[in-house]
């Protein structure tokens, strides 16, 4: 099986004029007319986006990218450090820039939990992929992650996890093309559900 490749990130200038790109051959025109080839995972912290993403990428012979990792490597800081030093709003802005700069095809993309706060990012990702909401109940999330205070969550310091859950779930549902109920499923089981819903077929390496 071929190794996973790193994503190519080419940030776009959000203020660039429409007529520079909305013509045949322009990058925005190509995006809007391309067949979606990416599988984009959205969901709460602890929902398994990164772990499921790696497995799914292998099962479907796609490459994998984790946008939280892109944030940390591009800024050489942890998510928690960005929140502590610059505030949660700064992290959300950085995340939006990273998402709008993604230029990948045939990838599984694991997004950060706060990606859904950017309508521009969700709209952009939909032009080149299918958005999958990994729906995990709050008790399961809390059992999976021991200390949310060190996860670099893009939220106000006084907002509880329960409040964050209630705030975000409607947004995941709003933007998702497909919702996967993860209760009772293994990580491989979640992948199989995604493949079933998206019509993806398992691909295995050819044995010489």
Automatic annotation (TrEMBL):
One of its GO terms (biological process) is amino acid biosynthetic process. The keyword Transferase applies. ATP binds at residues 46-51, 155. GO terms for molecular function: ATP binding; magnesium ion binding; shikimate kinase activity. It is found in: Cytoplasm. Pfam families: SKI. Keywords: Amino-acid biosynthesis, Aromatic amino acid biosynthesis, ATP-binding, Cytoplasm, Kinase, Magnesium, Metal-binding, Nucleotide-binding, Transferase. Pathway: Metabolic intermediate biosynthesis; chorismate biosynthesis; chorismate from D-erythrose 4-phosphate and phosphoenolpyruvate: step 5/7. It catalyses: shikimate + ATP = 3-phosphoshikimate + ADP + H(+). Mg(2+) binds at residue 50. Its cofactor is Mg(2+). Binds 1 Mg(2+) ion per subunit. One of its GO terms (cellular component) is cytosol. Coiled coil: none annotated. Substrate binds at residues 68, 92, 113, 168. Its EC number is 2.7.1.71. Belongs to the shikimate kinase family. PANTHER family: SHIKIMATE KINASE, SHIKIMATE KINASE 1, CHLOROPLASTIC. Monomer. HAMAP family: Shikimate_kinase. Catalyzes the specific phosphorylation of the 3-hydroxyl group of shikimic acid using ATP as a cosubstrate. This is Shikimate kinase. The lineage of its organism: Bacteria, Pseudomonadati, Thermodesulfobacteriota, Desulfobacteria, Desulfobacterales.
């Amino acid at each position: 099986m071929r190794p996973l490749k790193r994503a190519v990130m080419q940030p776009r200038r959000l203020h660039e004029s429409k007529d520079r790109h909305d013509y045949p051959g322009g990058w925005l025109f190509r995006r809007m007319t391309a067949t979606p080839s990416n599988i984009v995972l959205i969901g709460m912290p602890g929902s398994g986006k990164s772990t499921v993403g790696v497995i799914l990428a292998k099962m479907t012979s796609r490459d994998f990218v984790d946008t939280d990792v892109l944030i940390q490597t591009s800024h050489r800081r942890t998510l928690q450090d960005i929140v502590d030093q610059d505030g949660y709003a700064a992290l959300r802005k950085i995340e939006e820039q990273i998402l709008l700069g993604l230029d990948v095809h045939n990838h599984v993309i694991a997004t950060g939990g706060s990606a859904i706060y950017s309508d521009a990012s969700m709209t952009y990702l939909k032009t080149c992929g299918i958005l999958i909401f990994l729906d995990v109940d709050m008790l399961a999330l809390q059992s999976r992650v021991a200390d949310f205070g060190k996860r670099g969550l893009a939220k106000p310091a006084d907002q509880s996890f329960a409040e964050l859950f209630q705030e975000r779930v409607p947004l995941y549902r709003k933007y998702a093309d497909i919702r996967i109920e993860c209760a009772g499923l293994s990580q491989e089981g979640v992948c199989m559900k995604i493949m079933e819903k998206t019509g993806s077929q398992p691909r295995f390496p050819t044995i010489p």
